[in-house]
Amino acid sequence: MDKSVSLALALIWLGVAAAAAPIRTGWQPASTDLLLRADFVFDNRVKRTNDLPTAALRAARRKMVGGGYIGPSELRALADAGDGLAAYRYAKMLQESGKPDPTGGAAHYYGIAAYTGRSFAVRPLARLLREEGAGYSPSRLKNALNAMTVQALGGNAEAATLLGQMYADGVPFGRDLAQAQYFLTMASGGGNPKAMLQLGVALMKDPGDAEAGHVGARSALTLASESDDLSVRVTAENLLRLLDAKPDPESEATQ
After folding, report:
1. How far apart are CA 227 and CA 219, in angstroms?
2. What's the mean per-residue pLDDT of the chain?
3. 73: how many CB neighbours lie within 10 A of its CB?
4. What's the rounded Cα separation, in Å, for the pair 171 and 144?
C-alpha cells in the first residue's frame, strides 16, 4: 500500500476514535496502550537446546529435532519448559485425540508455540479462540491474547488480521472497534486486501465514522475494491453501494 494512503487511513482512524468511545461487551483486555506494554507470560522461551534446564529435557529435545519419537509426557515437559516446537506438537496431539477440551489446553500450548515465534501456530490458535474461546477462563484468554499480539506486532499480517477480526466480531475478547481498527490497519499496511476489507466492515459499525459520513469505511473499501482478489473486490464494491444508498445524516438533519 502507498505510504500516503496508510497515513491517511491512520489519521482518519485517529479522528473517529477520538470522536466516539469504542463499543465493548463481555470480558475486556487492557486498552491498546496497555496492551503494547503487556507483561507477556511465556518469558522462558527455548531458542537452543542448551537453554533447557535438565539433561533429560536436552536429550528429549535433541531426539525430537533429530526426527526421533518422544512420548506425550516428554513433549509436554518440553512445552512447559518453553519449547515452542514441542508446544505446537503437543497442542496438535491434544486436538487429534478427540477428547473434550473445555478449558482450552490445546489453545494454551498453541499460544506457547506462537509466542515463541512459531507463526504456523497462529491459525489453529485463532480457530480455537473463535470456536471455543467464549468458555475459556480470563487467564487462558489473556495468555492467548498475548501470543496473538506478539505475532501481530512482530509483523505477522495474518495474526494482525485475525486479531482485528476477533475484536470486530466480539469473540472471544469482547467487541472493541478501536482495537479492531488498530490491528486491521496494521495488517492492511502490509498490502493485505482482505484486512483492508475487514477494516472497512469494522468502520461501517463505528458510530464515530458514521457521524463523519463513513469517510474511513469508504476509504478502506475503495482500496479493497481495487484488489486483484475477485471475492474481495466484489464484496467491497457491494458494500460501497450499500453506503451510497444510505441517506446522509447531515442532509436529513437539515430537512
Report:
1. 13
2. 81
3. 10
4. 13
